[in-house]
Amino acid sequence: MITVIKPGVARDKVDNLVSWFKARDLKVNVSDGDFQTVIGLIGDVDKIDVDLIEGLDIVESVKRISDPFKRANRKFRPEDTVVEIGAAKIKIGGGHFQIIAGPCSVESAEQISAVAEGVRKAGATLLRGGAFKPRTSPYDFQGMRADGIELLSAAKAKTGMPIVTEIMNANHLHWFDDVDVIQVGARNMQNFELLKALGAVRGKAILLKRGLANTLQELLMSAEYIMSEGNENVILCERGIRTFETATRNTLDLSAVPVLREMTHLPIVIDPSHATGKRNLVLPMAMAAAACGADGLMIEVHNNPAEALCDGAQSLTPEQFAELAEKVAKIRSVL
Ligand code: PEP
Ligand code: MN
User: Fold this and answer.
1) Cystine design at 76: which of 40, 80, 194, 247 (Cβ 3.0–4.6 Å)?
2) pLDDT value at position 114?
3) Segment 154-199, tens digit of pLDDT
């Protein structure tokens, strides 16, 4: 349920109403927008007399939210959420656009430092690299694990770029102290115990990727798991879904951007690398993502894609990435 406060109402009156709701065992979220304050309520809202609240002189309207996602809901918080990342507080969402770039997997100190330097110069603001890799085959490279995170950390120290890497098991969290954005991969989008554990993490953003066969509502329910434990720094990522089409690795659901924009206030990132699986499709889809209003991109870049241990076919060289960053910036300036 949400209670919309009339414009210009004094703070102490809003606080009184908030205390009244809290005394009734409801979880309260106050969203202060430029024009309006919205009080979101979660819990047994049926015990609230809607007519009584609506009759208060400070209240404009009271609405029930029938969607199962509440904290992630745009109705609950009408303003875009701006997530701040790392010590430098890099902003994403609400008009702030960021490019996350780096290799599928961290492979060596030389590789990650060369790619980090290359993408930073080209305009990427966050460095990605997989250390724990969710591979379809147990015989494929599984990632450098904790050693990979150490190498990412060293690249962060050298370049100043915050780092993004995937977690597969909440028991590994102690290795993620220096990680700025913890990624939940497509395969773990509905690992609810992992989501709850990440909800309890403070001071780090969570990049939540859409599952291979999940609806946007299911994606938002997964965001809700994280947010309901208190970590509201969630960034959503569309990375392609399974369809009957075989010409591309997955099918990029670009309409997810405007659809999610209506459903939620959370930032939305597009990953055209995993969505298409093909290097030559990454640039056009990245430009399209910028054009349709995404808040950021995640792009796989390798200094030697032909020798990559994972996802070489979709990896750009640093030079190709530089062209992409430049063209995306042009699209954004036109907008
Ligand atoms: C990745 O980003 O490295 C990855 C494995 O992506 P996804 O979970 O989208 O397949
Ligand atoms: Mn990959």
Assistant:
1) 40
2) 98
3) 999 999 999 999 999 999 999 999 999 999 999 999 999 999 999 9
Q: Rounded distance, CA 18 to CA 167, Å? A: 37
Atom index in ligand 1 nearest the CA of residue 188 equals 8
Stretch 66-73: mean pLDDT, rounded?
95
- Give the residue among 48, 56, 47, 9 at the shortest CA–CA distance from 30: 9
Q: Rounded to an integer, what distance in angstroms lies between the CA atom of residue 46 and that of residue 31?
A: 22
Position 48, amino acid:
I
Tell the residue number behind the tokens 């459903």, with chain if given.
263
**What is the reported pTM?**
0.96
d(CA 290, CA 270): 9
Distance between CA atoms of residues 83 and 239, nearest Å:
20
Q: How far apart are CA 215 and CA 113, in angstroms?
A: 37
What are the pLDDT digits (tens) for 241-262? 999 999 999 999 999 999 999 9
Instruction: Report the nearest-CA residue for atom 4 of ligand 1.
Output: 185
Q: Tell the burial category of 3 from Cβ atoms under 10 Å away from its Cβ (0-12, 13-18, 19+).
A: buried
Q: What is the pLDDT, as a whole number, of residue 283?
A: 98
In this structure, the chain runs to a length of 335
Instruction: Count how many Cα atoms sit within 13 Å of the Cα of residue 14 in the half-sphere of its side chain.
Output: 20
